[in-house]
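Lecture 7, part 2: worked example. A protein chain together with zinc ion.
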Amino acid sequence: MKVHFWGVRGSIPTPLSPLQIQNRIGAVVQRISEKDLKDADSRERFLASLPNWLFGTVGGNTSCVELETTEGACIILDAGSGLRELSNNLRERKDSERGKTFHIFFSHFHWDHIQGLPFFSQAFNPANKIIFYSTNPDLKSILERQMENPYFPVPMQGPMGFNAELEFINLLDTDGITIGGTYIRWHEVAHPGGCVAYRFEDAGKTFIYATDTELNRDDFVKTEENSRFFANADAVVMDSQYTMEEALEKTGWGHSAFSVTVDFALNWGVQKLILFHHEPNYSDKKLFTLKQSASWYSNYGDKGVVDIEIAQEGMEFEL
Ligand SMILES: [Zn+2]
Ligand SMILES: [Zn+2]
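Predicted complex, written out as structure tokens:
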């Protein structure tokens, strides 16, 4: 399966400000020397030598991750503002004109996980089918309510609204479901108002999406249920919003410190950990530093090995 990141920020969209862009251009200009400008190759080399926080950004859109299964199903994890980017990208794909089914799973319904849905243009196309999944029995009315007057100009179920065929699936009474050859299960995690993580098994590979999670001691205990859900995943996308210092100040806010997330990944034999749901107040520079700290921390002592990445918009990998 292929994993593609369209929105990685927590809480609220955070576009770069004009001042931040000006400061970046200023810092780049300061680093250029005459030899860097000599020809196309030297210019390429110069750009490649810039630190990632100067020549890039993790992105400012809120949670949205796309999973393309080995059988080609399109699974979407949360509908934060990143969903609009995915929607634009889908329109450029070869098969975009034909009717297609999209499977949208919600971890929970905080704004940063639903605010992109009214901008998912594929939902307005009668040729498409959208299947929504959640453990909340009010799934349909929750989604309708965010598009009601006065919150949005177009009601979800009106003549101008979502004309695609819609289906709402309540996962609460199910242990798991399958989409083609992909087996999906859910697990409750600690977050104010509730939230679930999802586990996807496809062609012998396992992927877990666990956003908005305040890890606690129970999550490390090797109970049968925990082991069935968390053990030996090939990749885990996990809420790592805070530094340890900030996590201690914000106990009960429903998010985890990156070092606790690393401990968690090592505890469960995870191959690859992707730090996710970035704090909106953290700059790119700070976030890339957190990634370095997390890698250093994971290699400290004899706790095992985990490959650590920081989620960035546009990043993709295959399992
Ligand atoms: Zn969130
Ligand atoms: Zn939340």
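The radius of gyration is 20 Å. The first helix runs from residue 18 to 31. Keep this in mind for problem set question 3.
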